């Protein structure tokens, strides 16, 4: 804050009125109004700022009204909440330090201590129902500060409820504190929960199950056991079919059909070497039908004894 806006070079100016910017800067110096603190400690903090910047009674009372939450500010009585006499320009018509402390004690003492403790310990945990928590916190906040007609869009209430969302990240918490309405607060928190829900392990396991169920079933045969419905990597059988090949065109368990000419059984082409075996069988059959002299080749080596 620029102190030049409040003090001159001699630091002895008696300020009677404050601008909006000056009130905002002084509230930043005071910090957030701690409802769980005692009225005496809050009054001491306020009067320290009043003394530091040499504020008059009118400016000090205005600063107190800005610093207080709206539900407590509405309970202030004259000469702090409003001036006593006909003129607001007279310093004597506004309350002094003693009057301001008494008003703080009165408005702070009207709280329910059990409700204040419950309000302080309230917290939105991961997995809790968002709408239920916000509704219960609003009811607890109204009963604690005895303000049943307070609007849910109150800035102090939204700021307090944002601090109870401890599991959200910092940018989201800042957005919750700056929410301009109760519905906007709920929407921001709901969107963040939906965006981060896929990172949780239960949700991740559910998504994996859904994806696995959506896959098409393997309808081919296994190269290891020969059964359909799974691949060789997924096979759990210890048996292995040696003669099975993926290029087979006929069934493995097909029985040989008898030959119509000689009654012999033809070999099934169940393997990659089926055509070669068939050719060897034909060559053997042709050699069996040749004359006897053709079966024994003539000697070609002259050194071999006949």
Fraction of residues in H or I helices: 40-55%
Shape: rod-shaped
What is the residue-averaged pLDDT?
75
What is the number of helices? Answer: 13
Termini distance?
127 Å
Instruction: Please trace the helix and strand order, writing H or E for each element.
Output: HHHHHHHHHHHHH
Question: What does this protein structure show overall?
Answer:
- The protein is an all-alpha fold and 306 residues long.
- Helix content is 46%, strand content 0%.
- It has helices spanning 20-30, 39-52, 57-67, 70-73, 97-109, 113-121, 130-144, 155-162, 170-177, 182-196, 201-213, 274-288, 292-295.
- Helix 6 packs antiparallel against helix 7.
- The longest helix has 15 residues, at 130-144.
- The radius of gyration is 47 Å and the shape is rod-shaped.
- Residues 1-14, 200-207 and 246-252 have low confidence and may be disordered.
Quick structural summary:
By secondary structure, the chain is mainly α. The chain is built from 13 helices and no strands.
Keywords:
single chain, 306 residues, mainly alpha, 13 helices, 0% strand, rod-shaped, disordered N terminus
Topology, pairings included?
Elements: H1 20-30, H2 39-52, H3 57-67, H4 70-73, H5 97-109, H6 113-121, H7 130-144, H8 155-162, H9 170-177, H10 182-196, H11 201-213, H12 274-288, H13 292-295
Helix pairs in contact: 1-3, 2-5, 6-7, 8-9, 9-10
